Amino acid sequence: MKVDRSKLSSEELRKLEELGIICRGDILKMTTVAQSGHPGGSMSSIDIYLTVYKFANIDPKNPFAPDRDRVVVSHGHTSPGVYSALARLGFFNIEKVITGFRHPGSIFEGHITRGIPGIEWTTGNLGQGLSAGVGMALAAKLSKRDYHVFTLMSDAEQAKGQVAEARRTAAKYKLDNLTVVVDYNDAQISGRASDTMPVNIKGDYEADGWKVMEVNGHDYTELSEALYQAVQEDGPVAIIARTVMGKGVSFMENDVSFHGKPLDLENCRKALAELGVKDDIELFIERRKKLSITREKLIPPLEIKAVNVGKPKLYSPQEKTDNRSAFGNALADLAKLNKAILPIAVVDCDLKPSTKTTNFEKIWPENFIQIGVQEHNAAALAGSMSVSGILTFFTDFGVFGIDETYNQQRLNDINKTNLKVVVTHVGLDVGEDGKTHHCLDYIGALKNFYGFKLIVPADPNQTDRAVRFAAKEKGNFVIALGRSKISPITGLNGEPFFGEEYEFEYGKVDVIRTGEDATVVATGQVVSEAIKAADKLREEGIEISVLGVSCPLHASFGSVKEYLKGKVLTIEDHNVKSGLGSILAEYFTVAGFLPKKFVKIGVSEYAVSGSKDFLYKLAGLDAESIAKRIREV
Prior knowledge:
The chain is of the alpha/beta class. The protein contains 23 helices and 18 strands. The mean pLDDT is about 95.
């Protein structure tokens, strides 16, 4: 049953028109006070913002209520308009905005930021907002909640491929709880948008199965009528709102130079006089001088429910399998245990047989979100689903889930999402697919992010426990898995090392073998090769330690310091310049000591096609090659 969203009354529309003038003054003041920002587009979008935020089911006194409507603003550079509209509608104090806009001591940053009341998604990189909106609309369906998602966009970003991906996804899933409003001012930095890159906006939306309406974007009555009609439709709706860049100030209208250029003080005063808005700009200039350059961190809301992770599955030493299958089994177990408790979703990019998510789909088909070969959209919408009460797994190959979607994952990191990214087929272990598919930089790439945690399990038993661990922990995780089948790692007693008593602990370095002649530090599936080498060398009288590093970004090397003072070798199926070896070298520098000898072994160039065994031998990652290097050391 849909929430009855009433039409705005004539009195409400009259008040919005009055606010539209006041907000234009706010936009000019804050950008001039900051001497930075985007006034032109903000002034073309402001009437849209006021109408949508007034129409949407959002309470300024409780802006993050779970059943609220969501408003996603994709063109985040129009933050002056968004902040002004929200402040004038009662979400926060407008004077704080005008004083602190783009100042380090203020939460009102240059691009809109999730966590500010009324703002659902941090945006700035154009073309990603519709994916975020689609993710939130899907989350509403999966959690059986009746909220509507309004995604507000610019016309220029409609040229982006990710927007097309998101359009198709919304149509496929019949998202009748999604409405897009496009600010069509036909202006961008280079001039007219229709000249810079022609796009048939209306035709594209219609071709993908959307209903399209066209309105005057400065007419509050037309906008509110269109919004009211849109929420009654049985599919996604796009409203194309024709607007004027710099609307409201004669010398700014249709001048693209004001896209990202604020007015100087003299012209700002002229504009305020033309608008008939109070000129108190000096007051805010003086207040700004007194602001502290530090502030408390903005903590955005996160809907998280307790998950039943069940009992770990134990793989026997004779049960040879691949880590990705262990992931698939654990994921299916989570589905069975939680189907009646909380929504879990898997976002797939046409790779379910390879990423081993088919069992989840069989158990919970309606929560298996098949996006097809649209990785950018998939990564972004998975992130927005994860902050909307859905335990979300995004599964893909390493080169697609991390490398190809690097920018989308970076935005998920910025938005402090709760996404569980599981990438398979990392490293040379991909084998015959060759250099285009060998993901050799996943550690180095993720090291650039501030919030993601990375787990690279050594065997199926550790994989099972890592999946269950990530499912119950708050925050973004990447679990990176190889392709080949391996035997579970055992201790010298022949029993599983990651056995019944083992509990996964993020950051812990596992001491799997001990010896005084040398230490091998390894991560992922090459840990098995290192152990084979160690056991072979033991027969020759050479005793080495093997340390398994499952969390290379946050490994607690200090707890195993005694093993790192002699001869140390790092082994990784990864670019040797940016992975485990580099992280350990950095640790030595910070810790203030160096080993007697330090050797980094990894992948030194793009590899050819071939079986994993051949490629490991060529790169020196197989047990025999590792043993040979240790003898040399």
